[in-house]
Amino acid sequence: MHSTEKFQQQTSEALHNAMAPCPTQVLQQTDNGQSRRFNVYRNNRAVSLMENLQACYPAMHRLVGDEFFSAAARHYINEHPPASPVMAEYGESFGEFTAQLPGSAAIPYIADVARLEWACLQVYHQSNTAPISIQALTSVAPENLTEVKLHTHPTMVLIDSRWPVGSIWLSTVKQLPTPVDFDLNNGEQVLLLRPHFDVTVNVIDQSAALFIEALRQGQSLEYAAGCALKENQSFDPGTQMQAFFSMGAFCGFTE
Amino acid sequence: MQTLSLDQPHSRTNTDPGGFTRLPRRAGVSLKPQHYAEILEHQPEAGWFEVHAENYLGAGGAPLHYLEKIRQHYALSIHGVGMSIGSAGGIDPAHLKRVAALVERFDPESFSEHLAWSTHNNEFFSDLLPVPYNREVEDLVCGHVNQVQDTLKRPMLLENPSNYLALEGSTLDETQLLTNIVNRTGCGLLLDVNNVYVSARNLNYNAEEYIGQLPAQSIGELHLAGHSTDDSDPADILLIDAHDRAVCDEVWSLYRFTLNTCGNKPTLIEWDTSVPEWAVLEAEMQKADRLLSSENIRHAQH
Q1: Which of B99, B165, B273 to mutate to test the interface with A (most CBs of A within 10 A)?
Q2: Domain boundaries in chain A?
Q3: Which domain holds residue B60?
Q4: What is the pLDDT of residue A22?
Q5: Are B126 and A49 inside 8 Å of each other by CB?
Q6: B124 touches chain A (CB under 8 A)
Q7: Which residue of A has its CA nearest to B83?
Q8: Is B121 left (phi over 0), alpha (psi -120 to 50) or beta?
Q9: Considering only alpha carbons, which residue of chain B is nearest residue A47?
Q10: Would you call B124 and A128 a contact, using CB atoms and an 8 Å cutoff?
Q11: Which residues contact B191 (CB under 8 A, 6 or more apart)?
Q12: Among B58, B60, B118, whose Cβ lies nearest the Cβ of A85?
């Protein structure tokens, strides 16, 4: 093995284990300075990766608190270090990882909050697609409207959670002054979209979720409305379609 | 010999004839997302902006959108922080390809990376780790610099690191190693004046001598930044390259020395953590600009 490779191997091992001695190639500077100086690199690495996880998961950070988040992040960084220097792509499994830790049992929805935040980050960096407005449908003959297949926006993500994850996330990131009591028995459907450059987080009801999911699968308006009506007899496809158009949920259609 | 035009000290055409960089010989600033909107709206007098390549490798969205808009009005430097030029295991070809696509898209006036390594066995350490200074590392780094320059189809600048320790097996001075790499690859240097100050203090050498030993004509860009002090051991005070505060007086004075020794060079105010409001960065930039256009500076363009 070449000496550079050997040194980098030793350094990697020493960075992984805070208790490990620093690489033997590090020259003595002062009586006690050797590992203290090497610790600058350990610290830089830990702080940089931890700050990145905090930036990816701001609501999760607030919900579990700084101390727990930092401890979870430290474990995660060592067990699942990044492979790529692109930090927007690091930390996908951090939510699941944290939810497995004994201390997070008191916050059962933490993995879903993390799932939402990770999806927001991915959507934020996705390629740009312009949404269409509802006026685009005026070219369609009224009798053909029910057979139209709307193309859902490529940034659209539907999160089906057994927890009120959208409401929890919104109140946490907005740091609402009064604590809001959520009925944890009410699951939520959360629709993420990035029609332009800002990611929007929309809590929608179950029938609306069935409607948009059917459209996403390429079904016609009539079929999608049927799916929603089975769930909720008072579902109004016209109103719901307008609401989705104003969120920027569609980027085209086929007749 | 060319002299700096004092009528138009901020002219964009006042570029480096050495060919390492096309940045104007003015002060520039690290571009941060919190300042995108303000910069676009007010279009402040700034020589150029620098971004970290790794923050702009997504498929789309706000970062690339704003960078494209800002690039229409300003010169741009793309600065890599994750290429791992000093890695014994080689440069990740997939990462290099992504950076090359970004460079092709934005055609920046300068591209730079570090004399450091940050990946090993498919793991990224998110820090600029040190290499020993010897012939083996020289060959390794030259190979990687050539690979980057060939792929990006342009010369790159190589930045001197902040040092916290010295390594066994070093047979060259850092300035010798950098000079050899410049001579063998045709790359330029990005001289980080704060890194020189930090390293010189940590390893007890003379910062001005270090700067005097570098090939001045190969320096394409200067960096200025703030550092923190770890005085937890009073017998071994360490300076840390934190990029989290204003440039200190000592580094400003080393910067004046650098300008007098090496001539005017495009100069970046680098600020990555605890980023302040735009006005604070602007004031730092203006301070560097005043020194750059000062008549006291040797105007010889190497």
Answers
A1: B165
A2: 1-107, 110-255
A3: 27-292
A4: 86
A5: yes
A6: yes
A7: A85
A8: left
A9: B126
A10: no
A11: B159, B160, B211, B214, B219, B221, B222, B223, B258, B262, B265
A12: B118
B246 domain residue, yes or no:
yes
**B167, A124: Cβ pair inside 8 Å?**
no
Q: How many domains does chain B have?
A: 1
Can you give A212-241 as a three-state secondary structure string? HHHHHCCCCHHHHHHHHHHHCCCCCHHHHH
Distance (Å, rounded) from C-alpha B165 to C-alpha A7? 14
Please give the structure tokens belonging to residue A131: 């949404």
For the stretch B61-93, pLDDT in tens is: 999 999 999 999 999 999 999 999 999 999 999
CA B234 to chain centroid:
31
Q: So what's the ipTM on this one?
A: 0.93
Please list the ranges in chain B whose pLDDT falls under 70.
1-18, 295-302
CA distance, residue B86 to nearest chain A CA (Å):
9
Summarize pLDDT for A2-22 with one digit per residue, the tens.
789 999 999 999 999 888 888
Burial of A14 (0-12, 13-18, 19+ CB in 10 A): buried
* Closest residue of chain B to A39, computed from CA coordinates: B164
> What is the C-alpha radius of gyration for chain B, rounded to an integer number of angstroms?
18
Residue B16 placed within a domain: no
